[in-house]
Amino acid sequence: MDLTFTPEQDAWREEVRAFLDAELPPDKAFNTEFEEDDELWDFAIEFTRRLGKKGWIGLTWPEKYGGLGRPVVDRLILSEELERREAPVVNTIGWGLAAGALLAGGSDEQCRSWLPPIASMEVHVAEGLSEPGAGSDLAALSTVAKRDGDDWIVSGQKTYTTWGTRAEWLFTAARSDSDSSRHRGITMFMVPMNVEGVTLSPLWNLAGGRQNHTYLDDVRIPDEYRIGDIGQGWHLIMNAFYGGGIGAQHIYFERTLEELVDYCRKTVRGGAPMIEDPVVRQQLGELAILAEEQRVLAYEGLSNHNHQRPPRFAGALGVVVSKETRPVFSEICQEIMGPLSQLRPGRWAPLHGQIEALYRQSYANHAGGTSQVKRMVLATRGLGLPR
Ligand SMILES: Cc1cc2nc3c(=O)[nH]c(=O)nc-3n(C[C@H](O)[C@H](O)[C@H](O)COP(=O)(O)OP(=O)(O)OC[C@H]3O[C@@H](n4cnc5c(N)ncnc54)[C@H](O)[C@@H]3O)c2cc1C
After folding, report:
1. How high is the pLDDT of residue 242?
2. Using CA positions, which residue lies closest to atom 43 of ligand 1?
């Protein structure tokens, strides 16, 4: 495992940085709940389209599907720089989960029809997997898809739909064969959000922002909106979730730590800069270890990919560590900063109020699957322990 980058990769990083310098106005902050603000949202859509125009959304996809065919390390570098600048990238479900599922098991025709518009941000996709009775146990889903001539009729309720009111399509799973075993007989579809039978109601999130309940009431869609083979939905979802994707969460921790160190240098407490306080220094050291762990795990994922090794622990280790690090990291930040860390963004909030947001978000570890469930994946699929 080599943790250094080549001169070409460094040049690519500089290219991304120059693009972000040119495109992201320094006076706009996207760190918390920007999707609730129409002006910021419109900016985010335009920014993501500009990324798409450069071919960077589908950076690693084959060229015939609207990608640039670049190596995964370039994707990691791009993600690192986007995260470092808190760039407002939207449609992450489209180019993450939906595109991942298409590349894992979509037909050539399906990939040609869906991937280029996702790569150019013409198609904005939300995720419709979870249901009131099927979250961690997704295979318990009860939304039904029935064949009707060349069409499908989809009925059921989805929940937690992020960006549901903003997206134009729902990438969803439905049971197409009720006689099959739980994990078979599930088929994936793209459902347009604006057709008859689709309605939404808000689900406000304590951690910030809005998710939605999505009701599918006898929604008629053509077979061309089916993704993958009939009955193969489970395989597509699992491949997209556990395919060894490499995230750049480590940059979030590194950036926060850098800002906190700067804050401790500039802030005087008890007559001396905080950075001179031995307890604070120890706590900052602790944060540095947590951040570094994330980076090493991300780079190990990259190394596995480059050497065509399957991800260790079924790809669940990095997710577990990242999700479980957040509350610990947030708590140490609060101990260092004291009560000011509880202020939301505004004049008096240090670090733009991001520690308060981190606190709220750190305990919401459900998105994409809880860490408890990822631990089970790690134990059973990763270590081969009995179920
Ligand atoms: C901010 C946010 C955004 C989301 N966005 C989307 C989205 O866009 N689209 C979408 O489809 N879904 C979305 N989700 C839903 C998310 O995928 C689910 O919340 C998640 O899968 C957990 O399901 P659940 O909430 O039903 O919890 P449950 O499955 O009911 O779990 C409740 C608790 O029990 C624990 N638990 C469950 N089973 C076990 C077990 N076998 N062993 C040990 N512990 C267990 C869990 O860890 C959890 O703590 C989002 C969730 C959040 C919080």
Report:
1. 59
2. 372
Instruction: Please say whether the dihedral angle defined by the alpha carbons of residues 53, 56, 60 and 61, taken in this order, is positive or negative.
Output: negative
Alpha-carbon distance 139 to 126, whole Å?
19
Q: Quick one: angle between helices 278-306 and 317-337, nearest 10? A: 160
Choosing from 373, 374, 387 the residue with most ligand 1 atoms within 8 A of its CB, the one to mutate for a pocket test is: 373
Q: What are phi and psi of 70, to 5 degrees?
A: -85, 160
What pTM was computed for the model?
Answer: 0.93
Domains of the chain, start order: 7-90 (1.10.540.10), 125-233 (2.40.110.10), 244-382 (1.20.140.10)
What pLDDT is stored for residue 247 in this prediction? 84
Ligand 1 centroid to residue 361 C-alpha, Å: 14
| φ/ψ of residue 124, rounded to 5 | -110, 120
- Please give the structure tokens belonging to residue 9: 């990769």
The atom of ligand 1 lying closest to the CA of 373 is 47
In percent, how much of the chain has pLDDT > 70?
97
* pLDDT higher than threshold 90 for residue 279: yes
User: Using CA positions, which residue lies closest to atom 2 of ligand 1?
Assistant: 367
Cα of 374 vs centre of ligand 1, distance in Å, is 11
- Going from the Cα of 320 to the center of ligand 1, the distance in angstroms, rounded, reads 14
Say yes or no to pLDDT of 31 above 70: no
Q: What's the confidence (pLDDT) of residue 76?
A: 95
